[in-house]
Amino acid sequence: MSGIIGKKIGMTSVYDANGKYVPCTVIEAGPCVVTQIKTVETDGYTAVQLAFDDKKEKNTNKPLLGHFKKAGVTPKRKVAEFKEFTTEFQLGQSLSIADVLVEGDFVDVVGTSKGRGFQGVVKRHGFGGVGGQTHGQHNRQRHAGSVGACSFPARVFPGTRMAGRMGNNRVKVQNLTILKLIPEQNLVVISGSVPGAKNSYVLIEK
Amino acid sequence: MSNLISIVEQEYADRKSALPEFKAGDTVNVHVKIKEGNKERIQQYQGVVIQRKNSGNGESFTVRKVSNGVGVERIFPAVSPFIDKVELIRKGVVRRARIFYLRDKKGKSARIKESKKTEK
Fold this sequence. Notes:
The complex is a heterodimer of chains A (206) and B (120).
Chain A (H helix, E strand, L loop, with lengths): L2 E13 L5 E9 L2 E7 L1 H4 L3 E8 L7 H10 L4 E7 L11 E2 L1 H4 L5 E7 L4 E3 L1 H5 L38 E3 L3 E13 L4 E5 L9 E5 L1
Antiparallel strand pairs in A: 1-2, 1-12, 2-11, 3-4, 3-6, 4-5, 7-10, 7-12, 8-9, 10-11
Chain B lengths: L1 H16 L9 E10 L2 E15 L6 E8 L2 E8 L5 E8 L1 E2 L19 E2 L6
Antiparallel strand pairs in B: 1-2, 1-5, 2-3, 3-4, 6-7
């Protein structure tokens, strides 16, 4: 899929063409630069590596600095690969939203979900909890209950849903509509919500 | 960062500033665009504003009128693309921001005093 890298700005609502009031996310996407072109001969597959958001040279390590220098661009914070771009690219070429996205298109958005820390089974897996405080319950309203049988199998199956770290995962939301493009400010308005906190990086995939 | 969001909301802020200043108790005439097939026409709806609700581009106002003895209330999103324009017919004097007491009044007692203040 082709795509572009962006930064989540926040949410608002807009009226669409049918007068419907739609919640939407505003993403500042691009301009991205091409930092590497992968080909079957050299890398075994084809892809285009894009980079987004300037950072200072002193905050870049030497291997990355060399990588950016090769493409002839300033150091960037976020680097991501996209497969199946239909057009040809040159190293160091700049890409803006108007080159990739069209209003009304369906896109997938990839982001890193907000980290929730160590969470119980009710929040993490949607367990029901006990559902009452009577009938002898005193301290296990939000517990998981049984995790398995007794002497057979005499173990807990791998993958049994339990409490643990929640969030901070790569999440893809599919089939979001592009409601509006504002190329002057590099803004994309996408219907619905997008994973991640404000100012986090997201990939808009087509 | 939020100024980037205000760029997206700018269109609605402009539309809102194009509306006349009105509040609860005022009589307004709302011109509503209605789509029938691919034809578009404008319908007028006149009544008393009984509340303005929410802020930003989610703001709405409720207009009440009595039609053939039946009370009708319509809620309009203030910046909806279906609102062609809003005319201010009459400024009223009421003491509250939401005049729901109007629903229980009939005839003479349902009148609202007109504001004597002239706008500059």
